[in-house]
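Why should sequence recovery work at all? Because a backbone constrains its sequence more than one might expect. Tight turns favour small or flexible residues, buried strands favour hydrophobic ones, and helices have their own preferences. The token representation captures these environments compactly. In the example below, the structure is given first.
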């Protein structure tokens, strides 16, 4: 729901470093514009206004968001349209793909309006594709199950996989497209020896609670039945703020791969520093309950907000591998978080930069913001509290992925490429494309929601070009 394209240099890198011709920023910008219906008051050549995806700020805001924007100015950071002119470093209110206080998903934007009208579009609900069928290296269709019954469907021209970073990689591997060594271990006949699953990338984050010591609540009152009633009747108010997110800041660390592209994002959530619901979520995603209770738990019930530093340009790459030949068996997913030593150093430095620069401003002092002063027990000897060493230690114990997985079916001409610049599977395979976040050769410095929809738009345009004049 966060609508961030990433930095223009991300796409130039796709084209110039990875050989994805036609994917430089000047090439993908028209496709961003095509899908967008911008309501943010920043009309220029970087934004579209006639597309299917509404983009706007939340229809509600808090005093905290206003104070954060003031703090940015006081700390010397510019206010930017991070989806506009290529100067991403700075601060902004959060842009979201939302309409009338609700998420406006890709399904709502592109499928639901036409599914009942298009005779050539059939959506098979309750179906799971389990394999791509080949005749030699020619793609002839897919195998799928529906209500427990295995079926096959033939492809007249080609099959297009859009099953996501995990799903598309798993399907290719199950079908014999992947690293030969891995496929042969599972006795899967090899159709094409390609590095499927070998370039997994994701953003890494940590949720930190920042209490406020004054009586001012920063405009974040406890939710009440009145808030529920307001949202139910008018789709506005505090509940309409997506995951309480209102503010983004983009920063550079000294470890950035490109000095022109920020490698750190800081999101601020207008929500109390901690809650039992937050504990349930963090424990469900891997945090030990004792770690939450000792470090975060004491902030439950305190006024304040949450700060989420994100490593946007990780140097660590993971992998996806099959566990078995059963399509219902989840694959092994190794995110390889912090495998590269620069990653934890970068995000620790970025977090400290936010704390040192923003919390010392008059805007933040006006509500008495301070970093949480309880020491995380495993990091008691890592360094002074909120030093880079201490922050790095906390990240190593408590960091979580952001579910922005990408890059497992990378495009281009480099040694790690699986599809070409027109998203066609390589290795002499015919009739098979992939169109989702898995084809990114490198992760973007922003959330992957908007780039994924852009990929879909560009894929559709290429397919129409390839079959122009055919019935």
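From this structural description, the recovered sequence reads:
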């Amino acid at each position: 729901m966060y609508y961030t394209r990433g930095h223009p240099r991300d796409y130039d890198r796709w084209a110039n470093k990875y050989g994805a011709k036609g994917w430089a920023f000047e090439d993908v910008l028209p496709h961003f514009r095509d899908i967008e219906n911008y309501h943010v008051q920043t009309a220029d050549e970087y934004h579209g206004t006639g597309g299917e995806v509404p983009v706007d700020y939340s229809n509600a805001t808090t005093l905290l968001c206003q104070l954060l924007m003031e703090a940015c100015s006081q700390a010397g950071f510019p206010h930017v349209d991070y989806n506009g002119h290529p100067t991403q470093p700075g601060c902004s209110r959060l842009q979201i793909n939302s309409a009338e206080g609700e998420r406006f998903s890709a399904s709502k934007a592109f499928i639901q309006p036409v599914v009942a009208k298009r005779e050539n579009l059939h959506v098979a609900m309750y179906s799971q594709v389990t394999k791509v069928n080949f005749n030699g290296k020619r793609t002839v269709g897919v195998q799928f199950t529906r209500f427990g019954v295995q079926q096959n469907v033939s492809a007249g021209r080609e099959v297009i996989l859009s099953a996501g970073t995990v799903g598309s990689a798993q399907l290719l591997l199950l079908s014999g497209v992947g690293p030969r060594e891995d496929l042969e271990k599972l006795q899967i006949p090899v159709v094409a020896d390609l590095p499927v699953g070998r370039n997994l990338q994701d953003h890494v984050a940590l949720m930190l609670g920042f209490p406020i010591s004054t009586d001012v609540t920063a405009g974040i009152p406890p939710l009440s039945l009145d808030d529920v009633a307001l949202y139910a009747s008018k789709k506005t108010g505090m509940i309409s703020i997506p995951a309480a997110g209102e503010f983004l800041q983009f920063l550079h660390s000294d470890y950035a791969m490109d000095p022109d592209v920020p490698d750190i994002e800081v999101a601020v959530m207008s929500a109390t520093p901690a809650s039992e619901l937050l504990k349930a979520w963090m424990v469900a995603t891997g945090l030990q309950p004792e770690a939450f209770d000792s470090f975060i738990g004491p902030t439950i019930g305190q006024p304040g907000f949450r700060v989420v530093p994100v490593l946007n340009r990780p140097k660590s790459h993971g992998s996806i591998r099959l566990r078995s030949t059963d399509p219902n068996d989840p694959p092994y997913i190794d995110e390889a978080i912090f495998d590269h030593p620069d990653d934890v150093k970068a995000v620790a430095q970025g977090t400290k930069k936010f704390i040192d620069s923003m919390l010392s401003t008059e805007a933040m002092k006006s509500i008495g913001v301070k970093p949480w002063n309880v020491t995380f027990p495993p990091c008691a000897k890592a360094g002074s509290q909120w030093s880079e060493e201490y922050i790095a230690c906390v990240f190593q114990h408590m960091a979580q992925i952001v579910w922005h997985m990408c890059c497992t079916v990378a495009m281009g001409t480099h040694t790690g490429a699986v599809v070409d610049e027109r998203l066609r599977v390589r290795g002499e395979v015919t009739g098979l494309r992939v169109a989702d976040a898995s084809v990114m050769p490198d992760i973007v410095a922003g959330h992957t929601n908007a780039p994924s929809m852009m990929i879909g738009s560009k894929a559709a345009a290429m397919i129409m070009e390839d079959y122009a004049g055919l019935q």
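A few observations help interpret the result. The CA atoms of residues 410 and 441 lie 4 Å apart.
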